[in-house]
């Protein structure tokens, strides 16, 4: 079972490996920073953080029927807040610390599909900004030299992000189907053996 969970995690996270920060944002430690999401507010908004090769879900928000923002889930309510400003949702990070210096993405979830907005990488001063732009980290934690080039669609060179996420969801579905068939097969075999 542990091997199956590891395989599922790898399949779900691998499309995110090549998400990189497109925007650098300078912050001051101890202050509050607001990140905006330019995706539709009519679907669930997922906020993700990538730091030192690890992916962390921070918050899920949705829109109430009254038009107000509803926080569905929050990893740390004393440190992260969801808010809405001029028909745009945002993530507020309270009292920024060094552990918050990472890359943040928002994504919408609609009909089993995730659409990602551009990422924002937080840094503290000019020296950190230069290091960050020279060495962009991917999700695996390895550093890559060079610029972050994008194509006309806003995605990174190579297969589009939508394709990568679609492929991950498809693989996940196939694994679930394989697991379900295996469970049914084992249960049917056990019932057949007890009848004999």
UniProtKB/TrEMBL annotation:
Keywords associated with the record: Membrane, Signal, Transmembrane, Transmembrane helix
Presence of keyword Electron transport: no
Transmembrane spans: 165-186
Cleavable signal peptide: 1-21
Region named Disordered: 127-154
Domain Ig-like: 15-117
Biased composition (Basic and acidic residues): 128-152
Identification of the protein by name: Ig-like domain-containing protein
Organism: Cyprinus carpio
